[in-house]
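ok new one. same drill as before - structure tokens go in, u give me an amino acid for every spot. 1032 of them this time. try not to just spam alanines like last time pls lmao
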């Protein structure tokens, strides 16, 4: 092999090696980037070989083969980039030999104690990975002030316990650590851990993911668990490069199609988990790059990449900027919810090994989802086997493919059967492509993968179908052409600088980070940027910027494969002490029992003597429904659902009763959380809700006998249940709420609408969970309560628990929107059933059916989010979301203005010559009444078209496929002018529009009435007279 090149020989280093280490095959390619636009795409050599148990052997044989074939010398190679599924496979397969037990130290002070680490993991994963956890002092507020400083002695005490258990992998997770650039609490705590536990692997959560406390922690724990295996694997990748005399950097591809140094990948292996599909997509784009160029040459066009393997087909959208479209805010792997970026991939059971079953008179022809997989060369007919596969049918249709023995399938199918099989393949591909499209326009489709031969040359929805040469090694090509990127995700004050000035600075920082990571300075561009004002937080916005560029071949300071004298420390085999620790961890981590799987079609809630006892299944469905009814606001119910689920698993009982069964002289209390959703996902609830209740009843003569939710929409829809639980106040929760949805202010509630007495919401108590309480014994009006509470909120960490004074049972029955817990339950059940039955494409229609049907609601629109604009005014997030139709019934565009919650769905008229010439460019035209599809107080709900989950206004982002529903508001709002004044268009500044109901409100069906096993519910269904609200 060639000796290490001298500095003057650096220009000779012109070749990039890309390797993809898969579960079955290891693919390799050698590229000369300067010839990428040549007919051969600069591909100097390529090879495919079987993956070996020791990756070093396979990689070495692969590179030697390509070097020999093309006459390449080691001095010609500028870099080696490797893509692998080894790390993600270890997690998916729950391989105890590759996953280490992890201890977690939370720097959270009094917060998050009710939601322990791994609380939402599958039981077997939690038992396997979580060995120990402790909550210690620390954490920041969203504005950077301290919840509390870290306590070195406290951390050292916990480290001694971790060391005694034999655990050597530790995660440190601090509240708001991703924006902690001054206190550096995680870094300081990590240094203490390393001092107390020498040789330990310590992962700071801020290095792994961004805001979202539980999801970031989940990702950090998985990352820590796999570190030991990752180091060994990365060394096995670097070893053959060193042995072959390649004096060049070794990179690993990460989830977004860019590179990590070997050292960084060994430290953050989780960033590689989804790199396989990404490499395939970027490799496909490289092979057809001439076809992607836009007419002005500025940027390529979006393309659909269809990767057909032996068993499945993976489909993803490659955006015009050259990067795959990413999933929504959260992703899931092996049942673990995380918040790092992953490509949005749709998989179907269709591949080259898919088994073909010919149709009969009563049954159609089917292909897959079962497959012979890697046994194709043994079991497929063209190889002498007895199974008819999709590959056999492709060879029969085109014997020129030169795969196997075409004579073995000759005459097996009639011409009609051949045509039918081709149509089945075509329909499957066309359906999944249509699902992944983000506009009704046709777009190019690239077919790659070893199974691409089964696909037809024309597909509906495709401007062209491309089957490029070398597509079978697209993954390796994607690795070889991977770019360099960096992300800056931070919260900044806009008090002294404008958002644009800050964005410019952050873009510059992202570009500098990308160059430092190895990109050519002139090639770096900002490819994504987003600004998110934080509600209820003065002068604070979250900025997210990502930059990317081409690899700089002239760099000599990047990581290279270590020489033999610089081997990393050897891995210590798991000893008896660690095995014992893992067994202890299983007991500690799995302290509660998983909810059993239920048959959605036959499940019945536990209702006895007109009391509904909430189960985990009920809670999950209620949570899903609450977010839908939140109309984009109220914050995600997820962390609140997890907290209450923990209480249920610990033995708590949660009871729900019908409003009809509450005595007139009862005292119906209320409690709610208030604050920014951004804070809610990071600073998990402590004891502030109960602290507020305790302080309230120091001022109130009568304690609550029942609880009711302030709003069923969003996270507060769960709070009434949590406060009522036997482990808290131990009283029943009423099946109803004060809104029937979510609204941004406390005076937009039905008791205020009825106006029988004022103020309703005084006295009030507010607690922040960190020892601070504000009480307001008296107020002049409910509006004044709201104003004072918002001021306190901004000084108390932007998240508080509130306790409201009880009303009588008689008042509750006059004022409440009834049976909304039941309504949320039915919506959640409908979404769960749609997922189970694979009918998510009709989930919006199913939700409407559960809320009264076509007379009470409708699907307003289906499409893709193509624009989001946000601004902060008086603590509330104002903005609008633009949705473009996907064709058919839903064409053109609509906009959804919002103030925390969605206000309306309004059709955007097509511009005309007269309008474009007369409208002022500086003042947008007012909306016309005839363009209004739905408006407050009716509910405008946005759900993810791909999973049925609600999407909150903070989660709106470009490219999401959504369905927009309209549901008729309760007659508590629409039955009087006062209700419309408080909750209608004028309350949100839309004075030029008037409310026109989209349907007739249907009172939600009571779960208690339907499922009570002890009583005949017929009498309960007799409508009771309602008192009209006062208009004074």
């Amino acid at each position: 092999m060639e000796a290490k090149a001298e500095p003057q020989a650096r220009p000779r280093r012109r070749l990039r090696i890309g390797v993809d280490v898969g579960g079955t095959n290891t693919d390799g390619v050698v590229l000369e980037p300067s010839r990428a636009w040549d007919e051969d795409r600069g591909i100097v050599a390529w090879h495919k070989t079987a993956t070996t148990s020791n990756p070093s052997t396979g990689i070495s044989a692969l590179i030697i083969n390509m070097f020999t074939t093309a006459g390449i010398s080691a001095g010609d190679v500028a870099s080696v980039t490797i893509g692998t599924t080894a790390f993600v496979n270890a997690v998916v397969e729950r391989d105890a030999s590759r996953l280490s037990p992890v201890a977690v130290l939370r720097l959270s002070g009094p917060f998050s104690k009710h939601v322990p680490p791994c609380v939402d993991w599958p039981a077997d994963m939690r038992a396997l990975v979580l060995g120990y956890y402790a909550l210690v002092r620390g954490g920041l507020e969203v504005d950077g002030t301290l919840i509390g400083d870290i306590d070195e002695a406290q951390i050292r005490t916990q480290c001694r316990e971790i060391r005694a258990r034999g655990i050597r992998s530790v995660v440190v997770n601090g509240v708001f650590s991703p924006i902690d650039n001054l206190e550096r609490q995680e870094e300081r705590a990590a240094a203490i851990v390393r001092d107390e536990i020498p040789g330990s692997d310590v992962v700071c959560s801020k290095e792994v993911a961004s805001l979202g406390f539980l999801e970031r922690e989940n990702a950090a724990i998985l990352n820590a668990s796999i570190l030991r295996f990752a180091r060994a694997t990365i060394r096995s990748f670097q070893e053959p490069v060193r042995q072959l005399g390649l004096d060049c950097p070794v990179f690993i591809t990460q989830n977004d199609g860019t590179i990590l140094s070997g050292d960084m990948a060994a430290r953050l292996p989780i960033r590689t988990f989804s790199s396989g599909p990404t490499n395939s997509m970027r490799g496909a784009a490289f092979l057809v790059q001439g076809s992607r160029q836009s007419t002005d040459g500025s940027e390529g066009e979006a393309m659909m990449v269809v990767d057909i393997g032996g068993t499945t087909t993976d489909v993803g959208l490659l955006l015009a900027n050259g990067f795959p479209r990413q999933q929504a805010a959260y992703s899931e792997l092996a049942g673990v919810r995380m918040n790092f970026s992953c490509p949005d991939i749709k998989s179907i059971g269709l591949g080259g090994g898919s088994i073909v079953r010919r149709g009969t008179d009563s049954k159609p022809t089917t292909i897959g989802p079962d497959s012979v997989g890697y046994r194709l060369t043994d079991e497929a007919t063209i190889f002498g086997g007895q199974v008819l596969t999709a590959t056999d049918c492709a060879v029969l249709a085109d014997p020129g493919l030169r795969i196997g023995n075409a004579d073995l399938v000759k005459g097996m199918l009639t011409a009609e059967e051949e045509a039918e099989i081709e149509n089945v393949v075509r329909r499957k591909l066309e359906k999944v492509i249509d699902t992944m499209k983000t506009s009704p326009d046709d777009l190019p489709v690239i077919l790659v993968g070893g199974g691409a031969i089964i696909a037809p040359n024309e597909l509906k929805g495709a401007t062209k179908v491309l089957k490029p040469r070398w597509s079978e090694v697209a993954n390796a090509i994607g690795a070889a052409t991977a770019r360099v990127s960096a992300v800056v995700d931070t919260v900044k004050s806009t008090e002294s600088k404008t958002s644009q000035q800050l964005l410019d600075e952050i873009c510059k920082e992202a570009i500098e980070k990308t160059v430092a990571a190895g990109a050519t300075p002139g090639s770096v561009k900002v490819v994504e940027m987003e600004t998110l004002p934080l509600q209820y937080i003065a002068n604070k916005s979250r900025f997210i910027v990502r930059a990317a560029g081409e690899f700089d071949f002239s760099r000599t300071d990047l990581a290279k494969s270590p020489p033999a004298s610089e081997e990393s420390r050897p891995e210590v085999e798991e000893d008896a002490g660690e095995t014992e620790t893992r067994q202890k961890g299983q007991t500690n981590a799995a302290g509660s029992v998983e909810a059993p799987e239920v048959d959605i079609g036959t499940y019945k809630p536990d209702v006895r003597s007109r009391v509904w006892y909430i189960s985990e299944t009920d809670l999950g469905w209620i949570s899903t429904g609450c977010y839908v009814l939140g109309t984009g606001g109220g914050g995600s119910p997820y962390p609140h659902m997890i907290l209450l689920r923990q209480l249920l698993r610990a033995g708590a009982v949660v009871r729900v009763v019908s409003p009809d069964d509450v005595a007139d002289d009862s005292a119906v209390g209320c409690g709610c959380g208030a604050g920014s959703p951004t804070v809610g996902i990071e600073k998990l609830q402590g004891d502030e809700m109960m602290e507020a209740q305790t302080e309230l009843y120091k001022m109130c003569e009568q304690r609550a006998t029942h609880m009711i939710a302030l709003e069923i929409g969003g996270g507060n829809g769960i709070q009434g249940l949590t406060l009522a639980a036997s482990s808290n106040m131990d009283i029943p929760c009423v099946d109803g709420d004060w809104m029937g949805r979510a609204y941004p202010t406390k005076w937009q509630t039905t008791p205020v609408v009825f106006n029988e007495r004022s103020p309703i919401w005084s006295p009030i108590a507010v607690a922040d969970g960190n020892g601070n309480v504000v009480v307001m014994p008296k107020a002049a009006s409910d509006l004044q309560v709201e104003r004072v509470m918002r001021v306190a909120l901004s000084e108390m960490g932007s998240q508080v628990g509130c306790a409201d004074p009880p009303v009588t049972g008689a008042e509750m029955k006059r004022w409440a929107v009834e049976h909304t817990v039941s309504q949320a339950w039915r919506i959640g059940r409908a979404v769960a059933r749609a997922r189970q039955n694979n009918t998510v494409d009709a989930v919006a229609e199913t939700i409407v059916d559960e809320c009264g049907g076509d007379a009470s609601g409708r699907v307003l629109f289906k499409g893709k989010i193509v624009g989001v604009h946000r601004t902060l005014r008086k603590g509330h997030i104002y903005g609008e979301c633009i949705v473009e139709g996907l064709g058919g019934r839903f064409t053109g565009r609509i906009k959804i203005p919002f103030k925390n919650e969605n206000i309306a769905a309004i059709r955007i008229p097509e511009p005309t010559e007269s309008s474009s010439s007369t409208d002022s460019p500086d003042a947008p035209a007012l909306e016309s009444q005839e363009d209004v599809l739905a408006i407050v107080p009716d509910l405008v709900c946005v759900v993810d078209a791909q999973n049925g989950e609600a999407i909150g206004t903070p989660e709106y982002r470009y490219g999401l496929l959504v369905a927009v529903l309209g549901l008729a508001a309760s007659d508590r709002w629409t039955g009087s002018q006062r209700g419309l004044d408080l909750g209608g268009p004028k309350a949100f500044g839309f004075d030029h529009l008037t409310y026109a109901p989209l349907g007739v409100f249907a009172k939600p069906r009571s779960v208690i009435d339907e499922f009570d096993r002890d009583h005949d519910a017929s009498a309960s269904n007799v409508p009771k007279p309602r008192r009209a609200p006062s208009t004074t």
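The two ends are 93 Å apart (CA to CA). and btw The chain has a mean pLDDT of 86.
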